[in-house]
From TrEMBL:
Pfam families registered for this protein in UniProt: SelR
Catalytic activity: L-methionyl-[protein] + [thioredoxin]-disulfide + H2O = L-methionyl-(R)-S-oxide-[protein] + [thioredoxin]-dithiol
GO molecular function, one term: peptide-methionine (R)-S-oxide reductase activity
Protein keywords: Oxidoreductase
Protein name, per record: peptide-methionine (R)-S-oxide reductase
Domain MsrB: from-to ranges: 10-131
Coiled-coil annotated spans: none
InterPro entries given in the database record: Met_Sox_Rdtase_MsrB, Met_Sox_Rdtase_MsrB_dom, Mss4-like_sf
Gene: msrB
């Protein structure tokens, strides 16, 4: 099993995170589409892991995908770990925070920008920081 910079027991994660954050980040859950607070959020700043505060995405990488979840066309280099996910009868690429191993979402190769990628992210797995203030 991979070692992460931040490792905590399940009990520690449960005490730190909300019930929904724990379900998504630690149990690989998915929030319902069009319900996350960052789905249609387009302020300038950065999106950080809600579990460990590691910076994952810059606001410039965010785009409106109409898929129901926050979408980005790239992650900050080295911030994301990629893992094959064969659950639910599909083959997908899971994205995890490279710092704590928290489940962030999945990445797909159907993005509309030059990167061709769509990082489909759960709002519960991220926090927004306005870095200009």
């Amino acid at each position: 099993m991979k070692k992460y910079s931040i490792e905590k027991s399940d009990e520690e994660w449960k005490n730190q995170l909300s019930e929904e954050q724990y379900r998504v980040l630690r149990q690989k859950g998915t929030e319902a589409p069009h319900t996350g607070k960052y789905n249609l959020h387009f302020d300038d700043g950065a999106y950080r892991c809600a579990a460990c505060d590691a910076k994952l995405f810059e606001s410039e990488a965010k785009f409106k995908s109409n898929c129901g979840w926050p979408s980005f066309d790239q992650a900050i280099e080295g911030s994301i770990e990629y893992k094959k996910d064969a659950t639910f009868g599909m083959i997908r690429t899971e994205i995890l925070c490279a710092n704590c191993g928290g489940h962030v979402g999945h990445v797909f190769d159907d993005g509309p920008t030059e990167t061709g990628e769509r990082f489909c992210v759960n709002s519960a797995s991220i926090d927004f920081i306005n870095e200009k203030e």
